[in-house]
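Researcher: I'd like a structural prediction for the single chain below. Treat it as a standalone chain; there are no partners to consider.
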Amino acid sequence: MSIAYIELTNSCNQNCVFCVRPRDNITKLTNESAKKLITKLRETQTLVFTGGEPTIWSGLQEMIVHAKRQGIVSVFIQTNAVRLADKTYTESLKLAGLDKANIALHSHKKEISDSLTQTPGSFVKTLEGIKNVQDLNIDHSISHIITSKNYKHLLDFVKFIQKSFLKPIPLSFIFVRPEISAWDNKWVVPKYSQIEPYLYDALSYCKKQDVPFIVEYIPLCYLRGFETHSVELKRGASNEAFKTHWIDTKKIRKEDQNYIDTLQTKGKQCRLCWLNTICHGVRTNYSAIYGTSELFPVYKKPEEILGS
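Model: Treating it as a single chain, here is the predicted structure.
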């Protein structure tokens, strides 16, 4: 499966304390530039509009229509769903041909959510946006950034999502990346050893309840029994190709192992781990904060995980 991402704008209607998009150079694509990019990427199967926040970009509906006319099978948006609280607007995206919304929600507690997004009232709007997406039968999932403020509530968050919405929602548990805003706000980055018991409780519950989930930016030694849910492992095992257009670089970059290697690091003890060849380790900036002493060897054959 081929996937392409287009950053329409790096502006946003939230100001998350862990945002990994630069805020010192607010810019956006023109409609004409976006159309040219979409046409260039017409061979891709899935196109994801991202940001910043793509729903505040004025030409989104037009670009969805254009993508569909180019023969792109699936069109996604990555969004905080604040604007999707406006059902008329959400309907316009549906009519344009939107296939899926990947929605960011980082707590089931209003106070924590609004403090992480630094946007009072956004929690309520995001919940309303999710309900509108469900009412309109737009496929959707929820991305949950694991931070120092919410990791103790992972299980409760899953239960809240189950109780609050009529339809099951796939979940993405994403460990906060210590970059840009999160690097400036290092307090928001917990240690893997801190989140471990809470993460296992949440993942075990998801598995028991048949809640689909994936996990990102967590080394395999902290995913014992859940390795196959690792985004990095899935991508590596399938050789999945995807391209990203960031407006600050003004070009399409194809993701490859060399790029991953510049952002990931491991400890000396990882050489003893049987999963070393298939694990991406930790983000380099994480190791700059906490080191790599938390990592430990796992004596499990890769074949047991990869099924080969």
